[in-house]
């Protein structure tokens, strides 16, 4: 079992605009994070997890690459589709796969897309919703 914590939360309300930093968010079962533009039962890309260690290495700010949940102390590259993130006391999210870096990353900084290859974070769908906040634990169990 790996365990870390949430350092930052972001809600991307409108496509093409910066994500809003928040102290807490509500995960809605089967939909995503309340208020986020990806919050939809039809979307398998509901929530994006990213690790702060990679952001620091690439000199990026939390939320800059549109992740919803920034973690610390957990190696997201080890997560596999079908595994479950346990967030805080009640929330669970199923890993659906790696987020492939897109051309929008090079708009942030030339070459960033390649720098993030294999380290762009993990996408997940909300299984059991509830409140999440900065400081909550995040763990992955096999």
Level-2 CATH architecture: Beta Barrel
CATH class: Mainly Beta
Considering DSSP H and I runs of 4 or more, what fraction of the residues is helical? 10-25%
Termini separation: 7 Å
Major sheet: size, sense and barrel closure?
7 strands, mixed, barrel
**Number of domains as seen in the coordinates:** 1
Structural class category: mainly beta
Mean pLDDT across all residues, rounded? 95
Strand order of the largest sheet: 1-6-5-9-8-7-11
User: Mind telling me the CATH superfamily name?
Assistant: PK beta-barrel domain-like
What amount of the residues lies in strands?
35-45%
Q: Catalogue the unreliable spans.
A: none
Can you write the helix and strand succession as a string?
EEEEEHEEEHHEEE
Q: What is the helix tally?
A: 3
Query: Looking at the structure, what is the overall shape?
Result: globular
At the fold tier of CATH, the topology name is: M1 Pyruvate Kinase, Domain 3
Radius of gyration: 14 Å
- Number of strand elements: 11
């Amino acid at each position: 079992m790996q365990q870390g914590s949430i350092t930052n939360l972001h809600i991307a309300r409108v496509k093409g605009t910066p994500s809003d930093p928040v102290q807490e968010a509500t995960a809605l079962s089967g939909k995503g994070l309340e208020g986020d533009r990806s919050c939809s039962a039809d979307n398998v890309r509901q929530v994006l997890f990213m690790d702060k260690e990679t952001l620091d290495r690439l000199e990026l700010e939390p939320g800059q690459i549109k992740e919803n949940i920034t973690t610390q102390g957990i190696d997201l590259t080890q997560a596999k589709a079908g595994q479950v993130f346990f967030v805080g006391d009640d929330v669970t999210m199923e890993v659906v796969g790696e987020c492939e870096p897109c051309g929008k990353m090079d708009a942030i900084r030339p070459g960033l897309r390649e720098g993030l290859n294999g380290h762009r974070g993990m996408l997940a769908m909300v299984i059991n919703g509830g409140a999440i906040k900065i400081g909550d634990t995040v763990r992955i169990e096999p």
